[in-house]
Amino acid sequence: MSKNNAFDNGIVILGAGNVATHLAIAFFKSNNKVRFVYNRSINSAKELALQINAEYSDDLKHVPSDADLYLISVKDDAIEGIANKLNIKHGIIVHTAGGISLDIFANTFENFGVFYPLQTFTKSRKIDLSEVPILIEANNEITKSKLFQLAFNITKSVFEIDSEKRKAIHLAAVFSCNFVNHMYFISSELMQNSNSTFDLLKPLIIETVNKAIEMQPENAQTGPALRNDKKVIENHIKMLSRYPEFENIYRFVSDSIYKSNSKREN
Amino acid sequence: MSKNNAFDNGIVILGAGNVATHLAIAFFKSNNKVRFVYNRSINSAKELALQINAEYSDDLKHVPSDADLYLISVKDDAIEGIANKLNIKHGIIVHTAGGISLDIFANTFENFGVFYPLQTFTKSRKIDLSEVPILIEANNEITKSKLFQLAFNITKSVFEIDSEKRKAIHLAAVFSCNFVNHMYFISSELMQNSNSTFDLLKPLIIETVNKAIEMQPENAQTGPALRNDKKVIENHIKMLSRYPEFENIYRFVSDSIYKSNSKREN
Questions:
Q1: What distance, in Å, lies between the first and last C-alpha atoms of chain A?
Q2: Spatial separation of the C-alpha atoms in residues B258 and A141, rounded to whole Å
Q3: φ and ψ at A228, to 5 degrees?
Q4: β-pair partners for B141
Q5: How far is CA B99 from CA A75, A191, B79, B147, B162, in A?
Q6: What is the predicted pLDDT for the residue at B266?
Q7: Are B182 and A221 an interchain contact pair (Cβ–Cβ within 8 Å)?
Q8: How far is A184 from chain B (nearest CA, A)?
Q9: Mutation site, B160, B166, B174, interface A, largest A CB count within 10 A
Q10: Which of A177, B129, B181, B224 is least surrounded by Cβ atoms within 10 Å, i.e. has the fewest?
Q11: Which of B127, B159, B180 sits opposite A183 (nearest CB)?
Q12: What backbone torsions phi and psi does residue A22 show, to the nearest 5 degrees?
């Protein structure tokens, strides 16, 4: 029995990737019934469905039409195609994409919204969702209220954010997550190639994050680019000549650090 | 009374910046006598010296010649100039720079080394040094042994690393620290410009770091660049048109994420 009356007729999850998997499991664990998992590859659908006692299929025709919520969590380009093939009686349809507008659903559906968790998910990695912000948007007040109720079942942090603002936040998240991870990736490559290990950088990495969060990033910067230490920078560029992509990143980021700091000082 | 016999005649600190300040205080707290602080600006010299009961000056002629250790922690380009003006009877001279060779001291001194803490320091911010790796290099075994002894007074993590390897580690550290902080800085700018706050990204930022450390960065990547989600990427580039530097960084980093992943998959 669901504790969330708005979704007694159950939730359909469309997709079985990283975000779909983590949200579906969080719904299941908070006693919201996930009835059905659709995925274009049946193996991933099955893998997720078995964890949450749901039915599953790789055929959109088998998706039930009387569920309360249809949550589409697939590659951005595929959202509209799946939505347009659904037969929905009265339920709400949402997607989970930071970069896609609410109005992708506007011409076809009565009740629709966005349910965007501001987090990075990898299927194999467990994660505590209780602090993760969920950004909600909806086309009417009742739908909004229901989506808030569901979101508060899985996290303490729920906000109403419109499409334009959500897209800006998504872009900022790409820098703070994907691009930060790529900086770690480059570090890891450089460490391995000098017979060292990424682990040696751990205290530096953790302090860098703590500084940025506690002091704000504009007050936390250090290093050769900030000091415009040209000899060191030229040496680094020479050391990167084997890695032309990394060399370009080094040049542009160093240049941007120096310019950002000069602007602040003037 | 020092617990570290090798340095009973005291330590001289040349410089009073971020690294000099944190190391001097750590020496003081571990009962190693810091006798003297030199800095070209007398105010910073005084500010540091008063915290550690040391004498201070902005004139290199006043630096005592019979100390056991001379630690130079200034901008890289200034190390050699200061070293060449010192009159040292028997003490060890070291610098703290990741990117500078040991042999900067080779023609002038008898006992010399490098004492490089792999960490980001900001004067105003307290930090626990006990987990911070200190990378040691020295021109002879006795000097090396003394520097190890001193380093183990302030941290559990001490390694002998030669100049070439240290330079590679320093370059990796620039990516994991300065460049990561700049990604946070850009995020913060984007969040502020959409009337949101950097704080909203905190759970994402923390999970990104934990993932990279626990799974290794090459297994932790997610997002539009990895998926080659062209529509989202094009949209992001449009949104960045007001910030040409950030747009360039976005292009180069996205491209590098996609290429790095393709290489792994092939």
A1: 62
A2: 40
A3: 50, 50
A4: none
A5: 43, 15, 12, 19, 11
A6: 56
A7: yes
A8: 5
A9: B174
A10: B129
A11: B180
A12: -70, -40
CA distance B119 to B127: 10
**Contacts of B81 by beta carbon, 8 Å cutoff, 6+ apart:** none
- Chain B: nearest CA to A66, how far in angstroms? 32
- The pLDDT tens digits for A170-226 are 999 999 999 999 999 999 999 999 999 999 999 999 999 999 999 999 999 999 999
Angle at the Cα of A229 from the Cα atoms of A172 and B86, rounded to 5 degrees: 140
Strand order across the beta sheet in which A11-14 lies = A55-57, A34-38, A11-14, A69-72, A92-95, A112-117, A134-138, A158-160
Comparing CB atoms, the residue among B184, B195, B217 nearest residue A181 is B217
**Is 80 exceeded by the pLDDT of residue A26?**
yes
SS3 call for B172? helix
Nearest CA of chain B to the CA of A107: how many Å?
A: 21
Residue A138's nearest CA partner among A165, A110, A117, A171 is: A110
Note whether A74 and A58 are within 8 A (CB).
Answer: no
Residue B229 has a pLDDT of 87
Mean pLDDT for the stretch of residues B101-121: 96
pLDDT at B264: 72
Count CB atoms within 10 A of the CB of residue A46.
17
User: Looking at beta carbons, which residues of chain B come within 8 Å of A228?
Assistant: none
State the Cα–Cα distance between residues B115 and B266, nearest whole angstrom. 42
Nearest Cα to Cα of residue B27 among B46, B53, B45: B53
Structural domains in chain A, CATH included, are 5-161 (3.40.50.720), 167-265 (1.10.1040.20)
- Whether the complex's predicted ipTM is more than 0.85 is answered with yes
**Please, which residues have CB within 8 angstroms of residue A101's CB and are 6 or more apart in sequence?**
A163, A167
Q: Do B217 and A259 touch (CB under 8 A)?
A: no
Percentage of chain A lying above the pLDDT 70 cut: 97
Interface contact flag, A202 B224, Cβ < 8 Å: no
Q: What is the C-alpha to C-alpha distance for residues A18 and A1, in angstroms, rounded to an integer? A: 26
Instruction: For residues B2-29, give the mean pLDDT.
Output: 89
